[in-house]
Amino acid sequence: MLSSITHAAVRAARPATARASALSAIRRGNATAASASPASALTTRSWEYIKVSLSETGKVGIVQLNRPKALNALCSGLFHELNDAIRTLDNDPAVGAVVLTGLPKAFAAGADIKEMANTHFVDNYKSNFLGHWTEITQARKPVIAAVQGFALGGGCELAMMCDLIYAGDNAKFGQPEIKLGTIPGAGGSQRLVKAVGKSKAMELVLSGNMWSAEEAERAGLVARVFPADTVVAEAVKLGEQIASYSQVATQMCKEAVNKSFELSLAEGLHFERRLFQATFATKDQKEGMKAFAEKRAAQWTNQ
Ligand code: CO8
Fold first, then answer.
1. Active-site residues: which are they?
2. Do both 46 and 184 map to the same domain?
3. Name one GO molecular function term (predicted).
4. Residue 18 shares a structural domain with residue 100
5. Nearest atom, ligand 1, residue 155 CA
6. Structural domain of residue 148, as residue ranges?
């Protein structure tokens, strides 16, 4: 991982760099550059449930769930902060990808059982309980989950809302809601089936058992497994690679893959072909293919 220390170093280093360039911009009398970018402003904001940092290049936003006393149990306030951070990173042109991670012991041990235990259907219905908990799926930029420790219930569902999952070798995935007399509420009976198929999903949901990182990888829930202390760094590395491409193309890739969950094969292929054709209206497609022919690196303008 960016071990906790390395991770902290990234967090600490970035604001210092941002401050230094802001100061030099002030010296140059450049008021626009002097104001912090939306993403860098997140890194100095005071959060209750999360921490936000940027990679060295500033192109990858790193959101860390940070509620250690409750193993990152997901409460409403946490989701308000998470949504706010993801929305800001998604809208910042300097950011090309986002990594969502947790703590070494838990990515998230589920929805906050104590917060919801005594709520009732009518109140939950009227307040649209969980309604804003899926906003991360609306992000246009790729979001990579870097999971260490427990990813249970809503924690597993949150990881599945991301575009792909990298797991530390200590990760444990499960949908234990059955043990609480309830059922998954945000994708454990839907996204999980699409990720691993009916039989494996049924087993996880009906037994409440946990999968090791290795089992989750074998089932197709997880893209890759790394030593736990390297998984965040590996996710950031992938984020940097994604952020080095045209943002128009990466967003279209993500949109096309996600459509495969919603559309029939014929409709999906039609949608993919239209988007592919549409890339020929972009400067980045012209630049990418020209650069290939000229044997040089492409200079993307995200246009
Ligand atoms: N909610 C609230 N508090 C929690 C949760 C949780 N989900 N998980 C752990 N905690 C708290 C514990 O109560 C404990 O607090 P305290 O110290 O005050 O007693 C602290 O975190 C540490 O936990 P443990 O002492 O239990 O730690 P262990 O290492 O012994 O056990 C486990 C770790 C196995 C993860 C255990 O804590 C556990 O089983 N947790 C509950 C897991 C669970 O059932 N999750 C599913 C919740 S229901 C759900 O997620 C519905 C999804 C709805 C949609 C969500 C959309 C994203």
1. 111, 154, 157, 177
2. yes
3. enoyl-CoA hydratase activity
4. no
5. 57
6. 39-243
